[in-house]
């Protein structure tokens, strides 16, 4: 256990020094605030900068608070996930390349606590950042659009956190198994492209980790099927645990590839 | 839209966060030894690319070694 806390402190210090601890939560916060604001002031923004001919009338649909929170999530699904996958793709692979790994690997560390220290730092930064961002978004939505059912909101947040855990374990696994460049490609494919494929072909099945953000939205709206949702959550959690265990295995196997 | 009718209290947090991001990115740019591509170009991107500029710098510009 002392092993783990030592590795965690090292990891924490590194992420403080490269400012990840600061800028990743700030990005989520920025999108969380700007999404309700731009949606609310869209008519005025268009009127002042849109260069519309005189007398143009737009019919803007009435947006519900739930829809605003969902559009925040869809921002996170694109830009946020890009930040997470590309920002953390090197978390293990980089150490092998730069030689930090040799300093670590000569010590009798357990690879399990090595991977777990990285996992805990990623969870703190990414999930902490998203929670802060969504709460800010909820606050602004509350002011501008109206209240959201608080029970449904927590269900929505919990589901989205399960999805984030899955994303984090994909990134961790690919970083342990491949070099930084390949790891970023693999995690972008499995996080961003897999979602598009799941959205295109996914009408044929209902149980998949990539459907969790969609289920989160359904929970928020209050109409969702219990069975496929529970199965998706279960499969996502199992897949995350398997991927994290796999990351430990590959971190150990790739020791020989470390640059000395 | 005239100046007074802009809801500054609501927009202020966005402006502050953007400023923090720009300042942090610039501090980081000064501290790191080398970036992918010339440093002055990244300074221009960070300052002029308002929302996206610092994010692009942190993801692409920083050489993580």
Provide an overview of this structure.
The complex is a heterodimer of chains A (260) and B (65). Chain A has 260 residues and is mainly alpha-helical. Chain A has ten helices and no strands. Chain A has one domain. In chain A, 78% of the residues lie in helices and 0% in strands. In chain A, helix 3 runs antiparallel to helix 9. Chain A is elongated. The two termini of chain A are 28 Å apart. With 65 residues, chain B is an all-alpha fold. Chain B contains three helices and no strands. The N and C termini of chain B lie far apart (48 Å). Chain B has one domain. Classes of the chains: A mainly alpha (260), B mainly alpha (65). Chains A and B meet through helix 2, helix 3, helix 4 and helix 6 of A and helix 1 and helix 3 of B.
Domain count of chain B: the total is 1
The amount of beta strand of chain B, in percent, is: under 5%
Mean pLDDT score of chain B, rounded?
84
* Biggest beta-sheet profile of chain B: none
> How many strand units of chain A?
0
Quick one: overall form of chain B? elongated
Q: Which helices and strands, and how do they pair?
A:
The complex is a heterodimer of chains A (260) and B (65).
Chain A: H1 2-17, H2 20-49, H3 65-88, H4 93-98, H5 100-105, H6 111-144, H7 150-177, H8 180-201, H9 212-221, H10 226-253
Helix pairs in contact in A: 1-6, 2-3, 2-6, 3-6, 3-7, 3-8, 3-9, 6-7, 6-10, 7-8, 7-9, 7-10
Chain B: H1 8-31, H2 39-48, H3 53-61
Helix pairs in contact in B: 1-2, 1-3, 2-3
Membrane topology (chain B): Multi-pass membrane protein
Transmembrane segments (chain B): 6-28, 40-60
Keywords (chain B): Cell membrane, Membrane, Transmembrane, Transmembrane helix
């Amino acid at each position: 256990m002392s092993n783990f806390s030592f590795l965690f402190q090292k990891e924490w210090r590194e992420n403080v020094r490269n400012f990840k601890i600061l800028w990743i939560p700030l990005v989520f916060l920025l999108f969380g605030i700007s999404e309700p604001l731009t949606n609310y002031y869209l008519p005025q923004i268009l009127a002042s900068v849109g260069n519309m001919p005189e007398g143009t009338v737009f019919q803007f649909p009435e947006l519900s608070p739930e829809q605003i929170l969902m559009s925040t999530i869809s921002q996170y699904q694109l830009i946020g996930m890009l930040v997470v996958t590309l920002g953390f793709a090197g978390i293990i692979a980089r150490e092998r390349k730069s030689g930090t790994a040799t300093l670590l690997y000569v010590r009798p560390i357990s690879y399990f606590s090595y991977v777990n220290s990285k996992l805990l730092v990623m969870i703190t930064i990414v999930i902490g950042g998203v929670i802060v961002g969504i709460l800010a978004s909820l606050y602004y939505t509350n002011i501008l659009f109206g209240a959201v059912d608080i029970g449904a909101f927590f269900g929505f947040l919990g589901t989205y956190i399960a999805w984030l855990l899955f994303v984090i374990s994909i990134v961790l696994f690919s970083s342990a198994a491949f070099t930084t460049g390949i790891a970023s490609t693999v995690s972008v494919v499995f996080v961003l492209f897999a979602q598009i494929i799941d959205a295109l072909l996914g009408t044929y099945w209902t149980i998949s980790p990539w459907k969790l953000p969609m289920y989160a939205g359904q929970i928020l709206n209050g109409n969702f099927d219990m069975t496929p949702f529970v199965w998706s959550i279960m499969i996502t959690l199992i897949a995350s645990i398997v991927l994290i265990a796999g990351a430990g295995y590959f971190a150990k196997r790739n020791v020989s590839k470390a640059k000395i | 839209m005239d100046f007074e009718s802009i809801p500054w209290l609501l927009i202020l947090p966005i402006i502050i966060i953007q400023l923090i991001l720009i300042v942090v990115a610039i501090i980081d740019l000064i501290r790191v030894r080398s970036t992918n591509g010339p440093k002055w170009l990244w300074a221009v991107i960070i300052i002029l690319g308002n929302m996206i500029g610092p994010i692009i710098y942190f993801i692409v510009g920083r050489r993580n070694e």
